[in-house]
Specification:
single chain; alpha/beta; Nucleotidyltransferase, domain 5; Trna Endonuclease, Chain: A, domain 1; five-stranded mixed beta sheet; 11 helices; 39% helix
Length: 310
């Protein structure tokens, strides 16, 4: 019995964010209506179909390749790798894979490339929707960390809003440095210092660090007037973490740690109480700290969980 997996990707063209691929096996007699190329669907319709596919598909696999690897191996190879990972994550091994566009090289599973497959084959249409919604949701998460860039709107593509933000704020760690429009906007240590972006960028680097550790980033720079600002609010398991960040260019690690004064911590404690009451939080909470030392070769980030007020 032939088991067909459809495979498609989202995110080959953007200047920022990962490339995401999906592989989907549908029942032969599936009843999903409205499947088509994800780019031709409204966000609302995509989201509805995403939920239906998740329920009705026999198996779904997703592969995600980040910008660092895209820069290392190029976007085409990264796309192939994401597709291979997606196929590998299927719970049931297909007898054949149908790929939107170009067939996959060096793939154990027999596969065939179908030009325009995301408008012709239901399995590829479904994979197109899963990949697109998955990637869009990732870019919305990044938008919480980088609100200046508008990732929730353009999803990393080179719109005017995005290009203007690049010119003003330079590229971020989720930008693809091998893409020519990004190359001209790489931040330098001198630019960070001269434009007073040390603390600003340190908080964003810290949020990315926490996200990579499994945290869900809730908010940055929460103003809890009159008690001050909370740098990062994040969640891990059933605990809300409030993170204070100290960043520096020439500061030693000890000097950065000395900035966590008792007065500062007391203000943070008051801000956290304010936030708890405002949001009616009843789960566990924790106050953490992060230091970021900017240096040649990349920032040095250290995480200090459970800062005590005692």
């Amino acid at each position: 019995m032939e088991i067909i997996a459809g495979v498609d990707e989202a995110g080959r063209g953007p200047l920022a964010g990962p490339v995401v691929a999906s592989a989907v096996i549908l029942p032969k007699d599936h009843t999903i209506e409205g499947l088509r190329d994800s780019k031709k669907l409204t966000p609302k319709k995509r989201s509805l179909l995403y939920d239906i596919i998740q329920k009705e598909a026999i198996s779904i696999g997703v592969g995600i390749i980040g910008c660092k690897e895209i820069d290392k191996i190029n976007i085409l190879q990264a796309t192939f790798k994401a597709m291979q990972i997606a196929l590998g994550h299927l719970s049931q091994k297909p007898t054949k894979a149908l790929i939107d566009g170009t067939p996959l090289p060096n793939q154990v599973i027999p596969n065939e490339g179908i030009v325009g497959g995301d408008d012709l084959v239901d399995e590829i249409k479904a994979a197109s929707i899963i990949a697109k919604v998955t990637r869009d949701n990732l870019m919305k998460e990044y938008a919480i960390i980088f609100p200046e860039y508008g990732f929730e709107k353009h999803k990393g593509y080179g719109t005017k809003q995005h290009m203007d933000a690049l010119a003003t704020y330079k590229s971020t760690p989720i930008h693809r440095k091998s893409f020519s429009p990004v190359k001209k906007w790489l931040p330098t240590l001198s630019w960070i210092h001269e434009n007073k972006k040390v603390g600003w960028l340190g908080e964003k680097m810290s949020a990315l660090y926490l996200r990579d550790k499994g945290f869900t980033i809730i908010e940055l720079n929460k103003n809890c007037h009159p008690h001050g600002e909370i740098d990062i609010i994040a969640k891990l398991n059933n605990c809300i973490h409030f993170i204070e960040v100290k960043s520096g260019l020439k500061d030693s690690e000890n000097h950065l740690l000395e900035k966590f004064t008792r007065t500062k911590l007391n203000h943070l404690y008051d801000a956290i109480q304010f936030y708890q009451k405002e949001q009616n939080i009843e789960c566990d909470i924790q106050l953490d700290a992060i230091t970021v030392k900017f240096q040649k070769g990349g920032p040095k980030i250290k995480y200090f969980p459970s800062i005590s007020l005692n």
